Amino acid sequence: MSEAYFPVGPGLGLEENFLSLDDILMSQEKLPGRAESALPRLAFALGQGAGAGDSIPEGSKLEIPLWLAKGLRDSKRRIISVELPKIYKEAWRTVFSADANVVDLHKMGPYYYGFGSQLLNFDNPENPEIAQTILQTFISRFRRIMDSSQNAYNEDTSALVARLDELERALFQAGQKGLYDFQCWEKGQASQITASSLVQNYGKRKFTDVDG
What we know:
mainly alpha, three-stranded antiparallel β-sheet, 9 helices
């Protein structure tokens, strides 16, 4: 019986994958911001007006969904300005650089890596530091996550994964599935080890390049 839904992975870096449920949910996360010009007929959509035709005056403080903030970004005219959520500011970057493993990423923001990467779409002088912190946080937490996924099999892992962001939870589940598949193979319960689709596609590309 085929699955009703085949999960689609999130996009990478600055790009979103609009077929990915994770990216759709991530794009709903809100950014603090300010209206740099009047925004006609947007007050109701942002919960600041009673009628559909109400406008947001210039200078108003806003909580803007990421998808709308990106849509209003204009290189020629400054329509809105956005602020960094606190977890990406310098104080928290210092915490991450000291020991990223102590931070409850899911509590601070369930899409820490994806949302942080999307912030780089906006002109901010701190973008290089944000990008570096996101990368180093992932590197420093990755090994612990994968080690835990290999050593917590057949145990209650709810407390363990509660502190992980959604990308890290997917990595944890992938690690556990890999361990389960390997144990099944060791016990003779797996009929055959096959190459992953990623490896197969890579091989096809290589043959195509040679033929060309």
